[in-house]
């Protein structure tokens, strides 16, 4: 990484000035670093006179954990920039436009989406997103189909896999999702009040077997170019618009991992409504919206993916084999359920949590919400290989909440 140095605000303004079609020559530019600074710098540059803006994101060569530095290759910025370009080409309305990538400086310059709200925050405020299921299902169908052996040249896909070998970020997923929550580990993080649940995970043989199968799938099935970290903190939303950001975990993996991430985060918020909805009626109403989003995400994804398959699949075997598409979609739903469950559990007992649950101020409500999230997550994992319909996933959440 010769020549690499972390940018300061003056560097960021200097680079921003070169975008003459965004900012006026010699304009007064303002710059603010808005990232949390643990992993990446995010500079927001604005021209107050015109209201125009740009985002400059730069990878740092380390992560801060326990106040210590853990080295992490800045090559992930190249992966993020390349993934954003591919995803933008496949779903232009749903992904920010990239204006520049500089691999040596680990920089991506992109469209400013500050008018949007991070969806996790919006969900905690009980915002309704009527477009979400339609938009995210389009994002998933377009990006997964057209990067898979169904929708692109199988030779080019192999070459593309080479440039998305994401060793270090995949290891984070492998450790944090498919390992640490199921044993004692110093990075695990949970309150004493749910220590019984965490201990039970470690000796639940049925669950451990399913987690091993999911881990195997994550390690071995290079089906499509995944976003790799598609939680509601990587989605910018407004009721009328949806944008997917932050694909630094992108790699070739099992499609159900991305679809499962969306569903897991909707269901984590579902659990957190123990607090964010203050009475039964409003809780029931918002949970209905969330379950409808889960249903719509799968049913619309499935319909769009099947249409792409019917109309655009070039593979001579896959396009004709009777019943193959149905078997493929059944397995994809099962993977979705299993990965969703694994993602819920890690957010409650593992290292990195979600604000939906952790920001609940009342101890009793927080404990109830976390136990509910764990119950849903465990059932999704336990039942994943027998799931035949999205209604079963919805039923798991509904039944768990009714207990
Ligand atoms: P990290 O990978 O470090 O999590 P993100 O890509 O999630 O970084 O960005 C961190 C924060 O920076 C986001 O939560 C959002 O507030 C802001 N941000 C990132 N990209 C944009 C963008 N294109 N437009 C506006 N804000 C952005
Ligand atoms: Mg992020």
From TrEMBL:
Residues 31-276 form the Aminoglycoside phosphotransferase domain. Pathway: Amino-acid biosynthesis; L-methionine biosynthesis via salvage pathway; S-methyl-5-thio-alpha-D-ribose 1-phosphate from S-methyl-5'-thioadenosine (hydrolase route): step 2/2. ATP binds at residues 40, 57, 111-113, 246-248. GO terms for molecular function: ATP binding; S-methyl-5-thioribose kinase activity. Keywords: Amino-acid biosynthesis, ATP-binding, Kinase, Methionine biosynthesis, Nucleotide-binding, Transferase. Substrate binds at residues 229, 346. Pfam families: APH. Its EC number is 2.7.1.100. It is an enzyme of class 2 (transferase). Homodimer. Belongs to the methylthioribose kinase family. Catalyzes the phosphorylation of methylthioribose into methylthioribose-1-phosphate. This is Methylthioribose kinase. It comes from Paenibacillus herberti. The gene is mtnK.
């Amino acid at each position: 990484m010769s020549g690499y140095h972390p940018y300061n605000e003056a560097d960021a303004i200097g680079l921003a000035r070169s975008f003459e079609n965004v900012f006026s020559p010699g304009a007064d530019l303002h710059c603010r670093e808005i990232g949390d600074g643990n992993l990446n710098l995010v500079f927001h540059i604005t021209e107050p006179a015109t209201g125009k803006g740009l985002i400059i994101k730069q990878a740092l060569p380390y992560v801060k954990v326990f106040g210590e530095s853990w080295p992490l290759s800045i090559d992930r910025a190249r992966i993020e920039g390349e993934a954003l370009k591919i995803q933008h080409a496949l779903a232009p309305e749903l992904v920010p436009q990239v204006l520049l990538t500089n691999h040596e400086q680990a920089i991506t310059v992109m469209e400013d989406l500050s008018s949007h709200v991070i969806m996790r925050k919006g969900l905690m405020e009980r915002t309704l997103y009527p477009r979400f299921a339609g938009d995210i299902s389009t994002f998933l169908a377009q990006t997964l189909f057209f990067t898979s052996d169904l929708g692109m040249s199988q030779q080019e896909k192999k070459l593309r896999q080479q440039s998305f070998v994401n060793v270090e970020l995949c290891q984070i997923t492998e450790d944090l999702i498919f390992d640490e929550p199921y044993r004692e580990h110093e990075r695990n993080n949970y309150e004493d009040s749910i220590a019984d649940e965490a201990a039970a995970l470690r000796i639940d043989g049925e669950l451990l077997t399913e987690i091993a199968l999911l881990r195997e799938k994550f390690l071995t099935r290079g089906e499509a170019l995944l976003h790799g970290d598609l939680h509601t903190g990587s989605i910018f939303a407004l009721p009328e618009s949806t944008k997917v950001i932050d694909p630094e975990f992108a790699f070739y993996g099992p499609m159900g991992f991305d679809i499962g991430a969306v569903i897991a985060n909707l269901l984590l918020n579902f659990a957190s409504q123990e607090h964010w909805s203050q009475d039964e009626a409003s809780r029931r109403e918002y949970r209905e919206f969330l379950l409808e989003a889960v249903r719509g995400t799968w049913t619309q994804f499935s319909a769009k993916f099947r249409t792409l398959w019917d109309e655009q699949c070039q593979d001579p075997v896959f396009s004709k084999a009777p019943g193959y598409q149905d078997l493929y979609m059944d397995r994809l739903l099962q993977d979705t359920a299993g990965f969703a469950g694994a993602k819920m559990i890690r957010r409650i007992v593992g290292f990195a949590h979600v604000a939906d649950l952790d920001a609940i101020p009342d101890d009793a409500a927080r404990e109830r919400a976390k136990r509910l999230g764990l119950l849903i997550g465990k059932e999704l994992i336990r039942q994943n290989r027998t799931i035949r319909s999205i209604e079963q996933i919805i039923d798991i959440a509904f039944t768990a909440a009714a207990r």
